[in-house]
Amino acid sequence: MANRFARFRHLSVKRLFNRSTRSVAGQVLVFQVALVVLLVACAVIALVLQSERDTSAEARHRSTAVAQTFAHSPGVLAALDAPDPSKILQPLTEAARRAAGVDFIVVMNTEGIRYTHPLPDRIGKRFVGEIGPSLAGKVYVESVNGPLGREVQATVPIKNTDDKVVALVSAGMKVKNVESQVDRQLPIILGAGAAALALSTGVTALVGRRLRRQTHSLAPDEMTLMYEHHDTVLHSVREGVLIVSPDGRLMLANDEARRLLELPPDVEGRLVPELPGLDPGTKELLVSGREATDEVHLSGERLLAVNQRPTDLDGGPKGTVVTLRDSTELQAVTGRAEVARERLRLLYDAGLRVGTTLDVLRTADELARVPIPRFADFVTVDLADAVLHGEEPAPTAADMRRAAVCGIRDDHPLSEQGRLFAYQPATPQARGYGSGRSQLVSNLPSATSWRVQDPERAKAIIDYGIHSLITAPIQARGVVLGMANFWRGHHHESFDEEDLSLAEELVARAAISIDNARRYTREHAMAVTLQRSLLPQAMPEQNALDIAYRYLPAQSGVGGDWFDVIPLPGSRVALAVGDVVGHGLHAAATMGRLRTAVHNFSALDLPPDELLGHLDDLVGRIDQNEAAASASGVVGATCLYGIYDPVTRRYVMARAGHLAPALVRPDGTVTFPDVPAGPPLGVGGMPFQTAELCLDEGTQLVLYTDGLIEDRRRDLDVGMELLRDALTGHPQRPPEETCRYVLDSLLPERPKDDVALLVARTRQLPADRIADWDVQPDPAAVAGMRDAVSGKLEAWGLAELGFTMELILSELITNAIRYGAEPIHVRLIRDRVLTCEVSDGSSTSPHLRYAATTDEGGRGLFLVSQMAERWGTRYTPQGKVIWAEQALPDVIEEPVPVATAAKADR
Question: Where do transmembrane segments lie in this chain (predicted)?
Fold first, then answer.
């Protein structure tokens, strides 16, 4: 380290300038030293001027701040009101002046008479300076010749509580004190400038020394000699070099360039377009002047890699420099590598693009599209017909269906998609299917075996220009599922053995996806079959509602959506719709159990809220049992259950986590009634609540599952509004058309979730088919009711049912009078059956039993059960209703059955 410092001391400015300025490094050194001196001098002058300006500004700012601070100091106003303000203010101003570092603080009245001054003899005399702006309430800064000399002073007003100027304060500094601060800073500035000059000069010397070392202190003539040596080397390298002027004239061509381009000796100075033997593409590149990187151009039998760059990027003369490299052998190796890379890219793309869905036809189409046009001009995929239905393929190619056709053009003569084939044993497809090995037919026009299948089509294929074929078996898990056929025309050379191995690899990757899709198709078909068997196969006969429905299974898997229409006594009808969360066989089986449970509970004629309560307990038990048996259980289930009475037009419903139904009024308006939302089934702990609506005849009830309105691309509220729009304004549209229009409006082509939709238009039972009476709680009233009922049955043409109905009615009314409570009411309903209802205010339920021989009673309900088709009890908030049904005689014209829409899948 000491040696380095010693060497730096010896590197004096004198020695630097004693160097010869003849060299390039010496000339650069002189110029740099002069520039550094000029820059340092300018910097010192700028710093001096900046210091003077900053010091003056600091003096003004300090004077203003001190004057304002003193003007607002506590006690100043009080001192001004004193008999002798100078006595109080003089010591205060002197103390403040010394503390603030200013030369004076003067307090004066509004006429400019001083109260204070550093020179006591100046007290009582007029202030030297302008006080007008300060009397107007402003701060005024000025430079004056005062008692202390040249001064910089700031004058500010002193205001009382009424914002009135009562006095003035002036603070300032002498100019010579300000200048003395500048003088004190000047040595520092000059010292810094000198240090900067010394440091810059030293750095410049080091730069010059480095430049001399890099140029070896060469003079211009010596550097010329050096370039001559470089020129000699330039003509010895194994890479051609050309320099072209802006006007397209060849300025330089080394020996390698002359050899590669076969240029004549007198080529330099000639225009490039006039050079003989150059390829037109090479001429165009040399004249254009554009940049080029490893562009391949032909020169005789050589392939040249050409690079071209402009020569004026670093301020040099305009033109271009071109390098040429013989890449004939490298290009051949690169071509083989490119082919291998392209094949790997094709296999990679096949892995990404084939098998994106679990649809057999879609997967086959993806396999047909991937190789075009990089590997083949046309691709056809033939699968065993059983595979398309999810079944195991046949052992021979006698039942093949074309699953996909794709090519570079659409006017090809290949067989269309969907056609069924029975390949002849001699065809390449049959041989490949039977052996599980790929077949290569490199020259179709000369081959004969493939023509036996369809000679006319084979001739059309050859006339079209298709000349080569590879047929590869699609096999997975040791089973051949079909054949993939790759066809080439004029756009490709004939297939070879390397192409055969690529085709086998490509088909092998797709075969697993096709087999997975086949297995999924089979499982999906099984699940759909199971679910359809668990859903209603036909709508029951009833007159209360016009019914239409749809069920659409999801494309991704069968779900647990379901619906049901259940006739109830008294011409009432129960509507149910539900959803089991999840997909697959488990969800479908759980749906069947829930639907069966709803049927069983509805047979008890329970209100909707009680039915959902029992269903909630059942789902909870199912979930506990399955959770104990395995890790999977019922994830969740929802249900909407309602009962419509065509006699009263009342619709009572309750829901467990399900969406509210839509109501289409006869005027075309659509509403979603406010039904209390209970928790999903299986949660437990919360009771369910009912909502009761009075519906006009012709109102449409639209019940649905969430798959209809929910989608990944839209919110639930958006789906509800779309459903409202689809239903609004069409009150007279039949339920069947409503189902079709709603599905077309709301569902995509491939729904992600299954959908259940139930549309019911309400009817009202005519008043002439209903008869009711109030019964007095007196046994003598029974005889009168028998006569009234017999008369009504005769009016309806049902006199032959009179005896049986009188017997049933007598027993029911007698039980109500004896064991029930008021009020007692009797109602006859003539619909598809004749229903007799006896209601009373008691909730005590009668029980059917066998009476002993010695019993005096207990035979009434037994007689009712024997005489009636059905009988039962249902409870109401007012008590209970005991009902009994009788079939109508065949001679009676029954009501026109409701047109029931058959299920349909889109």
Answer: 24-49
